[in-house]
Automatic annotation (TrEMBL):
GO terms for cellular component: cytosol; protein-DNA complex. The keyword Transport does not apply. Residues 142-214 form the PAS domain. It comes from the Bacteria. GO terms for biological process: regulation of DNA-templated transcription. The modification 4-aspartylphosphate is found at D65. Residues 14-130 form the Response regulatory domain. This is Response regulator. Keywords: Coiled coil, DNA-binding, Phosphoprotein, Transcription, Transcription regulation, Two-component regulatory system. Residues 286-415 form a coiled coil. It holds the Pfam family Response_reg. The keyword Transcription applies.
Amino acid sequence: MNNLDSKKLLKRLKVLYVEDDSSVRNELVSLLSNFFENVFFAEDGKQGLELYVEKKDSIDLIIADINMPNLNGIDMVKKIREINKDIPVVFVTAYSDNDFLSEAIKLKVFEYIIKPIDIRKLMTVLTELASINYHKFMVEQQNKELKEYKDIISSNNIVIKTDENFNIEYVNKLFCDITGYNKTELLGKSIEVLKHPDTQENIYNDIKLSVKSKKQFNERLKNLKKDGSFYIADTTIVSQLNDKGEIIGSLIIQKDETKEVIKRREVQTHLIKDKGEIFIKGKENTAQLQYEINLLKESIEKLKAELRKAKNEKDKYIYTVEKYTNENKKLKLELKQMKKEVDTFEEKHIMVKKINKENADLKIENKTLNAKLENIELHYKKEVKQVSVNYEVKIDDLEQELSTLKEKLNSVENAEVVAQKLSYWKEKAKVEAKKVEKLEKEILNIGDKDILEKLFGKV
């Protein structure tokens, strides 16, 4: 709240200030007079009580000391509370005793300020009180206005309240005056007790659905009176809700329009009657009317011809519009197709670029792999050649050794010795053959399958 608003709110209040210390009282009265509309002051609790009793309708707020002669602040407020339970009270005192605080709480004192008085705190409290008082005043005004509106509605309209099951809970005086029922006669009965036989069967189902869905129902209804006659009312029905937003019933506002409806029907009857009289008079002037009718027929025929011509031109125009519309649609379709083709071509172009790049990468990779393959092939060829040479040398050595052995065998006379030597060399040859076989397996395990197939054929 800004300063201007605070001043305006404070200016609305009238204050009673009770203080036995004259210097403190005079100083604060002088200060408060700048803010409040009127400041009443008293020297002790007894005088303060008497002043309040005299000016109670003109006092909105009490500021009082506690420790005073004749009647202390606590006892003064107790007596004032017997007159007014809600008037705001602010205690200003040099004491902060718990007993005083307890009594102040019991008396519903708004604030308790310790002396020496902090003016800023006091003004903050008074501003808050002024704001509360203003809002209370506004609520009272609104409630007063609402009551006035309610009284106006109730005095000029039929008012019916129902519970959540659409049983009548309340009817106003105007309802009783119009229908002939008293205020308690229909209580607890279904609202359908007022349904006139001419009213549609489903109208009350529509009312219940509208209320349950929290929608407003507006319709003109024909309702029964106690004597069996009827009244016609412009009816508005709304849901009644509790604080939780739950439906607790319905409120029915009806405006009696029976007289207006009957009057309109009488007017319609008179109009029909007048039309009949006009028809009778018209028969007396048949010849004149026939002549005028013939003229009208000729005019109508001319108008029909012009209408046919206009219709033909309209058909031509519609045909032309449809033709151009169809051509426009066809062109739009072709344009859409062309856009699709362009998009497809661009996608294909991007894909071709991507494939070309991938092909180039693959060629480079293939070239690199071929080079590696050639190196591996050359490496294994060298190894195989070296192994082959080594074995050839070993075979030559063995053949030479075998030849030497044969020569020795021929020269050896002891057959048993020769047989032992042959057996030894056979075993040695087997060992060497196993070594060669093992080496070949190692080469097969280590070497690339494709290269070995090229060298030795399919293994």
